[in-house]
Amino acid sequence: QVQLVETGGEMVKAGGSLRLSCAASGRTFRSNTMGWFRTSPGKKRELVAQISWSGGSTYYADSVKGRFTISRDNAKNTVYLQMNNLKPDDTAVYYCNQPKATDHDYWGQGTQVTVSS
After folding, report:
1. What pLDDT is attached to residue 63?
2. For the chain, what percent of residues have pLDDT higher than 90?
């Protein structure tokens, strides 16, 4: 059964840091590229970062490049998103999934990140 559990979100002040974690079921995680997405009211879901199975290839949206770092621990079926120098525009619900996931696929409950100015 597919399961994605995102944790680590909370309210922080601008300039602060957070580390998000995503525990994924084996079928979703194993041998797949994984990504972090975010959604906020009035905005489309945005892929902010992705990482290949080996970890050797990563992608970052321009809006987070240089501030966010994605990593994974394949032994723990977990993907991480280290977020530094957070800005109010980073306020969103963050989700993990395969980058190819659509609205018709399973999504976890997400984790809320709120950045105050």
Report:
1. 96
2. 91
